[in-house]
Amino acid sequence: MLPFFWLPGDGLLERSRRDRVPYQVWADDGHLQLTEGSIIDYAAIRERVHDIAERFDLVEIAYDRWNATGLTTQLEGDDLTVVPFGQGFASMSAPTKELEKLVLGRQIAHGGHPVLRSNVSNAMVRQDPAGNYKLDRAKSRARIDGVVALAMAIGRAMVQQEEPRSVYDERGILWIPW
């Protein structure tokens, strides 16, 4: 997997103190992308998503419906496939269980990404009475966005594998002249 993380550049030192993580070190090492200003610059993220789409076979982008309308609408307008992904037990249970299985089986290569590693250390698995799982924060200020995004990606990959594929999706219809 290849994770990407963004934060506003302004106020980074204060944010590092508050969150007790080395954001500047991560940014200096290329593990964290800083955007201009004191709020996230979604135009910069949009541009980076396009770079990623050009370099990799980006099938779709899963997103949390909460507060994502602007960027997702723009990405849809750019002909990228965006798919809403719920954060409750119903949506997150199967991918969280699959993530757990992959982690325990040492089947995820992440290159020791420090931001992702921090996210994982902040996350805990919560279970509902029906036995469904979802990721939750172990501490109130802790960041877990990266590991949640990983679970969402796994969830969408699971759906992609389940959907039946037709030969016509790959090659189209063959016309045989009479």
* Secondary structure tally: strands: 6
How many DSSP H or I helices?
A: 8
Oligomer: single chain
Domain count, please report it. 1
Q: Give the H and E element order.
A: EHHEHEHEHHEEHH
Percent strand = 5-15%
Q: Rg to the nearest angstrom?
A: 19 Å
Poorly predicted residue ranges: none
Per the CATH scheme, the topology name is Nucleotidyltransferase, domain 5
End-to-end Cα distance = 49 Å
At CATH's second level, what is the architecture?
Answer: 2-Layer Sandwich
Shape: globular
What's the main sheet like? 2 strands, parallel
CATH class division = Alpha Beta
Structural class: alpha/beta
Please state the average pLDDT score.
Answer: 91
Chain-wise SSE layout:
Layout: E1 6-8, H1 12-19, H2 23-28, E2 33-35, H3 42-55, E3 61-63, H4 69-77, E4 82-84, H5 89-104, H6 114-122, E5 123-127, E6 133-137, H7 145-162, H8 167-171
Parallel strand pairs: 1-2, 3-4
Antiparallel strand pairs: 5-6
